[in-house]
């Protein structure tokens, strides 16, 4: 199962209510797609120079992305608290 | 009734042992640990958690949960590092006093490495903060 969204919650002293964003990954992917297409030839050239097979590398990055599901990071400070949940 | 208890009672009825001896044997049998069943087998931990507590206030400053699968994927990515870059990283680690060789990370050792983390618990107590690292 691939992660589908990241939920970010930020609470600070100034605002009473917490700010909460839920960012779906398909939206991030859609926004990054043009940049990824532009950088693809460059990435292939770098892989060729470094003698790295790009396909296992791509597979490894995909596995990292898939494994992100369930990650949570909560940080509380006196003045601010941040919570990131990948689901 | 389990087999051990039945044997004890049979020995008692046959007159091989006295009632006191039978009682002692039954109590000894009852104290034996239960054999592991499917439900009592400890599940493999799925996450590694890092908790930073503020010792003074008793509050949690940071609570980080990382899936074990992410560690597996990360180690696999480390195995794809080119040889030249790996040498640079190794020499930099040695310069900082860390005797670790990235080339030792191999996929065949990976599962064993991750499995060893199951029992991992690290507790660091400081006067201000308390850090706990454990698997769950």
Protein model, in words:
The complex is a heterodimer of chains A (87) and B (136). Chain A starts with a strand and ends with a strand. By secondary structure, chain A is of the alpha+beta class. The longest helix of chain A is centred in the middle third of the chain and has 26 residues. Chain A is built from two helices and four strands. Helices cover 46% and strands 30% of the residues of chain A. The relative contact order of chain A is 0.26. A four-stranded antiparallel beta sheet of chain A has the order 2-1-4-3. Chain B is of the alpha+beta class. Helix content of chain B is 43%, strand content 21%. Chain B has a four-stranded antiparallel beta sheet. In chain B, a hairpin with a 3-residue loop joins β3 and β4. In chain B, α3 packs antiparallel against α5. The longest helix of chain B is centred in the N-terminal third of the chain and has 13 residues. The two termini of chain B are 37 Å apart. The mean pLDDT of chain B is 79. Classes of the chains: A alpha+beta (87), B alpha+beta (136). β3 of chain A pairs antiparallel with β2 of chain B, so a sheet runs across the interface.
Task: Spell out the blueprint of helices and strands.
The complex is a heterodimer of chains A (87) and B (136).
Chain A: E1 5-12, E2 19-24, H1 25-50, H2 54-67, E3 72-76, E4 80-86
Antiparallel strand pairs in A: 1-2, 1-4, 3-4
Chain B: H1 3-13, H2 19-31, E1 47-54, E2 60-67, H3 68-78, H4 83-95, H5 107-116, E3 121-125, E4 129-135
Antiparallel strand pairs in B: 1-2, 1-4, 3-4
Helix pairs in contact in B: 1-2, 3-5
What percentage of amino acids of chain A are in beta strands? 25-35%
Question: Order of strands across the widest beta sheet of chain A?
Answer: 2-1-4-3
Give the SSE order of chain A as H and E letters: EEHHEE
Secondary structure category of chain A: alpha+beta
Number of helices of chain A: 2
Order of H and E elements of chain B? HHEEHHHEE
